[in-house]
Amino acid sequence: MKPMPPSPRFTRRDFVRAGSVLAATALNSAAPSHGRAATAPAAAPTLRPLLTPASKFRDVSRGKPVPHTLKGDALIEARLTPETWRLEITADTTSNPALKEPASLSQPFTLADGTALDLPALLKLGQQHGVKFLKAMQCLNIPAPLGQGLWEGVPLREVLRLCGPMRNVRRIYYWGFHNHDPKQLFQSSLTYSQAMETPPGELPAFLAYRLNGEPISLARGGPVRMIIPWAHGFKSIKWLQRIVVTNDYRANDTYAEQNNDPEAPLKTAAYLDELPAKIPAGPALQFGGLVLSGLSGLQRVEYALSRSNAGPDVPERWTEARLEPAPADWRAVLPAGVASREILGFDPKSGQPATWPLRYSMISWSASVANLAPGKYALRARAVDLNGFAQPEPRPIQKSGRNSLDVREFEVV
Known about the structure:
5-stranded antiparallel β-sheet, single chain, mainly beta, Sulfite Oxidase, Chain A, domain 2, 5 helices, Immunoglobulin-like, 5-stranded mixed β-sheet
């Protein structure tokens, strides 16, 4: 068994010709399969669109009823239409003896006094301070990404600056609509510096109102949701309606109380597509999947193919796979009217990405192996980040961002 070497120079067209097909179903094939064909030829690996259609994102929304299922007057009462959406920004007045000084801001925005921020005001702010970024959405504890989109909105810092000078603020709490049951409240938080002091060249936390060039649908968390580029999806709160500045040093994230790490950034990780349980001998085995570039970036994707009955002392042989290249013409990828040079992470002159893949985004990868003898096999895939850490290192706790190695077992017959 001799793996095919990776191609040294590869274009997106070459990637497609090598056995990938563009699929409008986006991430459907990346989701765990509930049933596999008994015997079937292994399909060529799927090259997904870089932008997942909004309707194709996997949904992990919470609430009873789920907010995006509301209709008619219930939507209006919940302030989940573009016309009724409002954002309150206040200071935490909770009595806590551990806090020596309460937080305060000069100009709160509330429903009670009619000053809560509406969507036209946010869009106007976006005309001067708007940002766009390509980001994959990944849940902390789900073994496949939910989708990837071009998100557009206003940095959180610009919204908070509307409140004037602040005092004694250490953390920013925020949450969205989840009916009137306090037990269903889903909330998250950032430190003040994460919100206000983004390093040059890094990506800010922002309030998003467009996805792939269109208003964010209710199903995707619209009219406005928080987007935290470096974080898992639980930080990117949907149906955003409330921001509270506080002197409390503790994270208030709902996930923090469930043995999760609320500050864990996105982890670089490779995901392997499903394979049939039995594959006929003869044609080269073609396979692939997705890889997400997390905080530590991506160096390469590797795969290891071994006999299923190999003993524990047999070392795994890892071989580099092919990465999907950056598009030569981003006009064929981006929504009409959006130029790549306007997007964070792209060179403003050339319109090409400064790194590939873009940090916090995902791309496809593929590989093939010829001349497999009949028998049972186990296929694994892993990502190696720019520090040289191979997945699942360096995180020993999967609750800080699941990144265990994907494995597919099959038989060549």
